[in-house]
Fold these 2 entries.
Entry 1:
Amino acid sequence: EPEVTQTPSHQVTQMGQEVILRCVPISNHLYFYWYRQILGQKVEFLVSFYNNEISEKSEIFDDQFSVERPDGSNFTLKIRSTKLEDSAMYFCASSRQGPPNTGELFFGEGSRLTVL
Amino acid sequence: KNEVEQSPQNLTAQEGEFITINCSYSVGISALHWLQQHPGGGIVSLFMLSSGKKKHGRLIATINIQEKHSSLHITASHPRDSAVYICAVTGNQFYFGTGTSLTVIP
């Protein structure tokens, strides 16, 4: 069964360092998403991406964050200068259809980011 | 403010019990998703609803668009159903509930 894969599963970084989280969405999906979940809190939407550009982003997704689809398979989330409060589990997801009529979401296993 | 409210926050049930988890939302939506988050953190989509009712195995999800309310039912609950169940709504953005932590005791 096709699945969304994320790497790394866990990354530890120093405050101020740049981090890139990688995702390989399901191959025939067109819409890609990043979410985060701070430990013990609810999942939060960060950004949706379609046709090589951001289609929606939340207030959390500030200038420190960027997304890219550098080739036909990878979808990346970059955090430019990490802060302690960026420590969270980051989930990538993909879907065939996108907002506002988003179809079924397929999630990766998540990348846990720890900022020291 | 919480655009999506779930109840209860925590639920413990005996194996075999019928379980209901509720979700209310305050924003306009095009679809509502029920998600299951395993103890290890992974998230799986259970249902996507825009109207009516869907059934998959022992799981049933309903939505009432007028009342902005959805329910997830689990019949004949089993310890392997123990997980966090999350309600999420989509329009142009996504809003997530805080989740309902379900523990089913053998």
Entry 2:
Amino acid sequence: GAVVSQHPSWVICKSGTSVKIECRSLDFQATTMFWYRQFPKQSLMLMATSNEGSKATYEQGVEKDKFLINHASLTLSTLTVTSAHPEDSSFYICSASSDRGYYNEQFFGPGTRLTVL
Amino acid sequence: AQSVTQLGSHVSVSEGALVLLRCNYSSSVPPYLFWYVQYPNQGLQLLLKYTSAATLVKGINGFEAEFKKSETSFHLTKPSAHMSDAAEYFCAVSGMDSSYKLIFGSGTRLLVRP
């Protein structure tokens, strides 16, 4: 149980275009979802936290107008990178948690590799 | 405020040798502590977690960790390394509140020599 999927697993786009990444909890209702960014050989950096039906809470230094997060249902959250530029190239990982008995545990998706040309 | 320090960005062991990955935490509230493993180009997989029950926690793949409050440590060990253990390992801390936010350490890359 507690499986999280991401789509796509990798994407290459041209500079200036927008890219949408989906994060789905497949077998549980995710009351909270998290989006992380990971640069090569570095740790995970939390970008934002989203609760179903609410606006996302962004970490300091993360541009909310550039990284649009929508958590429209208990099983789906999306991250849209708007007007992407090469410096946005990174590995994006989502995670999901539930307030129904998972002891603060986050379940991670497999990640999405974004390359902006 | 919470933080995690992982000593050693790289640890190299021989196959069959003891694995010890160090993690120290700082937390103003009783913490939940986690160890995750990440293989190249993949997400994170939970190895084990401490949630204020037993201080010695056993996880998957033969790993275990001991919560030592007096030392503010949560080191990860495995008696005998296997080649398949080569990966990046992250220690993380979370507060016992409803935010579920994880604070990650910088990670330790485990290399296993044949």
